[in-house]
Design a protein that fits this description.
5 helices; 201 residues; rod-shaped; Nuclear Transport Factor 2, Chain: A
Length: 201
């Protein structure tokens, strides 16, 4: 009887150990399976020009500063890159005004009424802008930004280089084809726009 009781206890202990180990192994396998599936769902493979590229899905807030800076750069490129062609000016302004509120429309109307665009066309002047840097504070919504850029006005006889500093706020809006980043520039003002140098051609 004593051997039978000892044998029963040993079998019971062994069975409990096997069941516990099996449960832990199943739990670990389920955990790793879910982690693997989640990892695979965040990857996308793209075929471009015969090459397979791997892309990863990330949370929207991870890219917030990058997208905000690019939105500001895109707006300034569209608003300040002008050629002596009314159709080009109108096309750029139509795109730029989707990215900003009435403050940008007021600035555009003021420039138009002052004859700025007419002067560009009459003088065959091309204007280009290079955004040097954009500082965005994403700690508080709406997000404050300040943009530092350089303008080049190319005339037949000279190139005028100007310093441009603007600032405003970015508000989140719905994304669309006209506004792919999902931001709207508000309270946009030009802080500085002064001549740096005049280069003879």
């Amino acid at each position: 009887m004593k051997n039978l009781d000892t044998a029963f206890q040993q079998v019971r202990t062994f069975t409990l150990a096997v069941v516990t180990a099996s449960t832990l192994l199943c739990g670990f396998a389920l955990y790793k399976s879910y982690a693997l599936v989640a990892g695979m769902q965040s990857k996308v493979y793209i075929l471009a020009n015969g090459k397979v590229l791997e892309a990863y899905a990330v949370a929207g807030k991870d890219n917030l500063p990058v997208e905000a800076r690019d939105h500001v750069r895109t707006f300034h490129r569209l608003f300040f890159t002008l050629d002596p062609d009314d159709a080009v000016i109108q096309a750029n302004m139509a795109q730029a005004l989707y990215l900003a509120d009435a403050s940008a429309k007021r600035a555009y109307d003021n420039l138009r009424e002052s004859g700025y665009y007419t002067g560009l066309i009459a003088g065959n002047i091309s204007q280009r802008v290079a955004v040097d840097s954009v500082a965005v504070d994403v700690r508080q919504d709406p997000y404050f930004f300040r943009c530092y850029a350089t303008q080049r006005l190319v005339r037949a006889t000279s190139i005028l280089v100007r310093s441009l500093v603007t600032e405003g706020y970015l508000r989140r809006v719905s994304r669309s084809d006209n506004n792919p980043h999902g931001f709207l520039i508000e309270r946009w003002v030009t802080v500085e726009n002064r001549d740096l140098q005049n280069i003879k051609r």
